[in-house]
Amino acid sequence: MRGDDMTRGPVRKRRVVAAKKPPRAPKWVPSIAADVYRRVTTELNSKGLLKNGNRDLVEIYVGTIAAIRRLNAAIEQDGTTLHEKGKPLRVHPAYAMLTEKEKQARMLAGRLGLIEDTRAAQRKAGTDVSNSDDEEEFDDL
């Protein structure tokens, strides 16, 4: 008796399906954050999570990262404090904006499942990061 005679029914062939290519970065994506757009869309696409609702979040996330990088560049160029003639020394105003943008980026990264502990919590809770039922909280961003 040959080994293949012992199968139960027809042998199914596995079909290999290539992952869809992530969308190109929109023209508005600044070069300072194009790498983030490619990385995030590639990661979400490989997990099948790059859906219409998430694309909006990705765009907001990429814009936030671009703003963070620009704010860091401004602080690097101008220094951490500003010296204005006749005025007391003050902290660079970009720090306040940077703090807010970093909070926003962390929240969006968590919502998209880009942070490992967030992904683990979502898996444990059985929630899907692509669910857009609660996106109303992003309306004010």
Shape from CA axes? elongated
The CA-CA distance between the termini, in Å, is 68 Å
**Strand segment count:** 2
| SSE ordering | HHEEHH
Q: How many helical elements?
A: 4
| Proportion in β-strands | under 5%
From the alpha-carbon coordinates, what is the Rg to the nearest angstrom? Answer: 23 Å
Helix content: 40-55%
Residue stretches low in confidence (pLDDT < 50, at least 5 long) are: 130-141
Strand order of the largest sheet: 1-2
- The SS-based structural class is mainly alpha
Mean pLDDT: 79
| Largest sheet features | 2 strands, antiparallel
Task: Summarize the topology.
Elements: H1 34-46, H2 52-78, E1 81-82, E2 90-91, H3 94-112, H4 116-125
Antiparallel strand pairs: 1-2
Characteristic terms for this protein:
single chain, mainly alpha, two-stranded antiparallel ribbon, 3% strand
Notes on the structure:
β1 and β2 form a beta hairpin. α1 packs antiparallel against α2. The chain is mainly α. The protein is built from four helices and two strands; from the N terminus they run ααββαα. 19% of the residues are buried. It is elongated, with a radius of gyration of 23 Å.
